[in-house]
Structure prediction request, 100 residues.
Amino acid sequence: MAVGTTVRRGAGLLASVLRLIGTLIAAVLVIHIALTLLDANPANFLTQFFADAADYFNLGLGNLFLPEEPKLAVTLNYGTAAIIWMIITAVVVRLVRRIG
Prediction:
């Protein structure tokens, strides 16, 4: 097997793993938005888990927008973070595939 083929396979595998991780992070943010909009019980373990994870992955955008309505604030702030995560993921995956 040629070295170039091995490098391409490794880069392809790395790109796939990175895409999966980025998508999962964006999914956590979207699930937090959905739970907030659907008035999920904030004392529930699952709701707390997604809220804590979303706070960790929000890129510091938790208070970017400050509308009067709290649900709108969560949607705008965490939705923006999810979109940015998907953009970052796409760029990084493209770079990894190009390098490989």
